[in-house]
Write a structure and sequence with these properties.
It comes from Planomonospora alba. This is FAD/NAD(P)-binding domain-containing protein. It catalyses: [thioredoxin]-dithiol + NADP(+) = [thioredoxin]-disulfide + NADPH + H(+). Pfam families: Pyr_redox_2. InterPro entries: FAD/NAD-bd_sf, FAD/NAD-binding_dom, Ferredoxin-NADP_redctase_2. The chain is of the alpha/beta class and 294 residues long. The chain has 2 domains: 3-115 and 225-293, FAD/NAD(P)-binding domain, CATH 3.50.50; 123-221, FAD/NAD(P)-binding domain. Helices cover 24% and strands 27% of the residues. The protein contains 7 helices and 17 strands. Strands 1, 2, 3, 4, 5, 6 and 17 form a 7-stranded mixed sheet that branches. A 5-stranded parallel sheet has the order 8-15-9-10-11. A 3-stranded antiparallel sheet has the order 12-13-14. β1 (3-9), α1 and β2 (29-33) form a beta-alpha-beta unit. The longest helix is centred in the C-terminal third of the chain and has 20 residues, at 274-293. The chain is elongated, with a radius of gyration of 21 Å.
Length: 294
């Protein structure tokens, strides 16, 4: 069985930044990344990381691994993790789906979350292009278009026209069947959405259940999320604490409720951006090193 100082589960900005910090601190690292397509594969580019603004997720990963290769301390394992089994010595056996395992002293969860994709015609084609989850990530590419904000939360709906005015001066709210906000200053469409009309992922209208077409060029849609299967199993079987909204609970220094297991990136916060994830990955790596030596 191969032995490592740290096993990082997830190879996005959080995991790869942690791998860099740990590599430069002379720690042997295994990065385990599922062979399935990453969650951000459909994104036009990663933003907010100076020097790499706009590069595709695939190019970002390629550049990161080219940097890591200079140190020779991090290894990529294209495998999904089935379980983390605590050892008597305080380490963990990382059990890989389909067979096989490795041993590590510490674990960093950087798995991200699973988006709950609506079963709507046209959604997947537009997702990541003209249906966006974050204005800071994709608002610039969708500026000066007619925006729709999909939300059933009254407070979020009330703030929408002013909150997103920098990107669009034409913002309306879709409540998708929920009651409209009690605010005459907010234009709200309450009908249920049944389809999204687009051309090659370029949205041009939202179709409601009654057949009404509402012209829009961009939708801001913050999807429901759930933990990836591994995190759900750790919560059920290994005592990993989750917050009420299903994000992993940490202490502010990326420590989880399970000694020796840390978490960073999208799975610990609703504030999900590449630069925030990278910063959390760095924080987690420094904390792992500090905990080892304290």
């Amino acid at each position: 069985m191969q032995h490592y100082d740290v096993a990082i589960i997830g190879g996005g900005p959080a995991g790869l930044t942690a791998a860099m910090t740990l590599s430069r601190s002379v720690r042997r690292v295994a990065v385990l990344e599922s062979p399935a397509e990453p969650r951000n594969a459909g994104s036009h580019g990663i933003h907010g990381i100076v020097g790499m603004d706009g590069v595709s997720p695939a190019e970002y990963r390629g550049r990161a691994w080219a940097d890591l290769a200079r140190y020779g301390m991090a290894e990529l394992h294209e495998a999904s993790v089935a379980d983390l089994v605590p050892g008597r010595d305080g380490g963990f056996e990382v059990v890989v789906e389909g067979g096989g395992s490795l041993w590590t002293r510490r674990v960093l969860l950087a798995t991200g979350m699973t988006d709950v994709i609506p079963d709507l015609e046209g959604f997947e084609e537009c997702w990541g292009r003209t249906i966006i989850h974050c204005p800071f990530c994709s608002g610039w590419e969708n500026r000066e278009r007619a925006w729709g904000v999909v939300t059933a939360e009254a407070e979020f709906a009330r703030k929408a026209p002013t909150a997103f005015a920098a990107w669009s001066d034409d913002v309306i709210v879709f409540t998708d069947g929920a009651a409209p906000p009690d605010d005459p200053g907010v234009e709200a469409v309450t009908g249920r959405i049944r389809a999204l009309r687009h051309t090659g992922g370029d949205l041009h209208a939202v179709e409601l259940d009654d057949g009404t077409l509402v012209e829009r060029g961009t939708l801001l849609w913050q999807l429901d999320q759930r933990p990836v299967p591994l995190v759900a199993r750790l919560a059920e079987n290994r005592g990993l604490a989750l917050r009420e909204n299903c994000y992993v609970k940490t202490d502010g220094s990326c420590r989880t409720s399970v000694p020796g297991i840390y978490a960073a990136g999208d799975l610990i916060t609703e504030t999900q951006g590449a630069v925030e994830s990278a910063a959390a990955g760095s924080t987690a790596a420094f904390q792992i090193i500090e905990d080892e030596t304290s």
